[in-house]
Recover the amino acids of this structure.
């Protein structure tokens, strides 16, 4: 416990809450409860970002993950109308295999990190995670990746239209079924 | 750099121009934009034109093409041109499919030129996201939908693993530039031990990239996805993703030169198992397209051998191999697409085409010899160079790869058994269309480059 007590108390409490929430996500039988617990987990992770002096990231994390993506999750869950009867057959073997391999990964990574001295980088600037500083870096040092995300977004938009758009033939078909 | 701009803005322009036109009418325009881009990169690599002056406003260092990478980028663009030109267009309005293919190509170009982990990541994403959509672009085809979903989920997982590795690399070295990572590692080599974070990071980043190039422990998605996707998209995935993936992998590993003996330890078994498993599983396939998918897996195994040896010294070996693989696979996918029906996807589709269509039969033979690596085609030159380069560092890998190549003959040559059988008395008829001219060009280039490898020195 010596190592634990040297950590700041807010971090310990937050980490405890995060792990609790994450555990509830996987153990809960009700998918809607899982999603709500996941939202809670995202909130605590955002609090971690604030502790790490990354305020902007914390806000973005809340907006994007807890806001947009989780609402999408909830919508999909409610549209899918999940219940016991419609659940596809799955054997326990996959769950066990996944648990074992994930556990092995965790074991290997923690064992590796025990021996590695992670260099602690002290952020010397107070407001290093604020929008102003982030924007400055984006527009100077990271200008190229910033512009390149434009290609990514355009291709994602064109792809969404391609998938969502109705073809002429499809429209005719659906009209036939209606009549 | 200029090529990325040409391809991107060309794709945007095509989207607007082709709003109310059939895809067929603008396919040639798309192909010529890509050809223009390819020629411009090639000219840049030879120093004929110099466009760096236009890009002085760009903070330098994140995207840098060395001359060989530029040639590979040119090959990538030309391959995209060949695929778009050869494969038939859909009879539907709008240019969205071709535009998405061009966006995806931008990602491939970025991956090749990336000298920074963030750019590499963006390149992988720009390459993949249009492909997730394209795999399911035939919306009525249920297998296409399955392929799209499978590719999307697998791609998302591999991206997550790649990102985890990238954060470890950043944590271990404090930088994301390749050349600075190299500097830190040379420093660490001096003290005899590499940071554990760098080792874990390299493994995880490699897993992300091996997913993309479908090396064996991470290959499960590729046969299903290739089979479900429309033929030209499958060809695009088999060729463009593999070329871009391997070029990017080789570029990334130039930053890890001091760790070379360490990563060879685990990359050699992956290469060996990829070669053997890919070839043996290809033997058992009924569908010709699935066989092509497994053949592309085995080619990934041969290419992994290249990554085990000092990369910078003979980067052009990689380029030659990727060129030969791309040309051969493009022709095979084209011929499969031409003759396959929805019922019959086995090698039986090629029955008797030596009599009904001599020209296609010739192209099939040349392309098969190229991917199998038989002398007198460029495939042999490529394989020979690759194995010679890899032999000093990975002798066992090369020997296993030779065994794998021997196995591969037996499934590559399956179409030859039915090629000369006559089943119909259809008279041979050849109408020389634009498509035949393209096919002739690709086929001849495979033979000529194989007979006169000196020409490769001029290209690279």
């Amino acid at each position: 416990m010596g190592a634990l007590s040297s950590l700041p108390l807010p971090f310990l409490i937050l980490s405890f809450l995060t792990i609790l929430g994450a555990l509830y996500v996987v153990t809960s039988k009700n998918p809607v409860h899982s999603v709500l617990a996941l939202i809670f987990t995202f909130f605590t992770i955002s609090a971690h970002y604030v502790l790490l002096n990354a305020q902007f990231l914390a806000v973005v994390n809340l907006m994007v993950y807890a806001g947009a993506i989780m609402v999408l999750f909830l919508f999909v869950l409610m549209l899918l109308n999940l219940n016991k009867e419609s659940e596809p057959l799955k054997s326990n073997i996959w769950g066990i295999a996944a648990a074992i391999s994930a556990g092995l990964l965790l074991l290997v990574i923690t064992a590796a990190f025990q021996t590695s001295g992670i260099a602690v980088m002290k952020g010397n600037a107070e407001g290093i995670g604020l929008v102003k500083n982030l924007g400055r870096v984006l527009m100077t040092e990271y200008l190229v990746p910033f512009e390149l995300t434009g290609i990514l977004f355009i291709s994602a938009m064109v792809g969404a239209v391609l998938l969502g758009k109705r073809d002429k033939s499809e429209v005719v078909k659906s009209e036939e079924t209606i009549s | 750099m200029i090529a990325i701009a040409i391809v991107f803005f060309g794709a945007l322009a095509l989207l607007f121009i082709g709003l109310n036109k059939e895809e067929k009418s603008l396919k040639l325009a798309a192909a010529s934009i890509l050809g223009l881009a390819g020629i411009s990169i090639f000219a840049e690599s030879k120093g004929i034109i110099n466009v760096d002056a236009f890009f002085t406003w760009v903070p330098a260092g994140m995207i840098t093409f060395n001359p060989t990478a530029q040639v590979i980028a040119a090959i990538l663009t030309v391959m995209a041109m060949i695929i778009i030109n050869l494969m038939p267009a859909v009879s539907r309005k709008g240019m969205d499919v071709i535009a998405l293919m061009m966006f995806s190509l931008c990602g491939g170009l970025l991956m090749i030129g990336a000298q920074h982990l963030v750019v590499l990541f963006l390149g992988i994403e720009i390459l993949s996201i249009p492909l997730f959509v394209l795999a399911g672009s035939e919306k009525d085809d249920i297998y296409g939908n399955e392929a799209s979903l499978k590719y999307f989920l697998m791609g998302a997982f591999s991206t997550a693993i790649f990102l985890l590795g990238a954060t470890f690399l950043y944590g271990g070295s404090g930088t994301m530039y390749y050349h600075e990572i190299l500097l830190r590692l040379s420093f660490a080599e001096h003290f005899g031990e590499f940071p554990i974070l760098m080792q874990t990071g390299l493994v995880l980043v490699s897993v992300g990239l091996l997913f993309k190039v479908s090396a064996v422990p991470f290959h499960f998605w590729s046969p299903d996805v290739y089979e479900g996707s429309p033929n030209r998209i499958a060809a695009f995935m088999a060729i463009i993703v593999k070329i871009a993936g391997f070029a990017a992998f080789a570029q990334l590993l130039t930053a890890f030169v001091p760790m070379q003996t360490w990563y060879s330890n685990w990359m050699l078994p992956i290469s060996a198992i990829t070669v053997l498993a890919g070839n043996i599983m290809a033997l058992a396939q009924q569908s010709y397209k699935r066989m092509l998918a497994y053949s592309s897996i085995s080619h990934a195994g041969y290419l992994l051998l290249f990554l085990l040896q000092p990369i910078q010294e003979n980067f052009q070996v990689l380029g030659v191999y990727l060129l030969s693989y791309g040309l051969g696979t493009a022709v095979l996918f084209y011929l499969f697409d031409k003759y396959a029906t929805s019922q019959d996807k086995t090698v039986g589709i090629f029955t008797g085409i030596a009599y009904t269509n001599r020209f296609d039969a010739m192209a099939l033979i040349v392309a098969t010899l190229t991917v199998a690596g038989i002398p007198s085609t460029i495939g042999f030159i490529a394989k020979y160079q690759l194995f010679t380069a890899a032999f000093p560092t990975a002798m066992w890998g090369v020997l296993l790869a030779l065994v794998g190549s021997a196995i591969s003959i037996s499934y590559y040559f399956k179409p030859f058994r039915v090629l000369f059988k006559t089943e119909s008395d259809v008279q041979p008829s050849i109408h020389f269309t634009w498509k035949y001219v393209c096919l002739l060009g690709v086929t001849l280039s495979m033979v000529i480059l194989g007979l006169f490898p000196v020409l490769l020195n001029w290209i690279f």
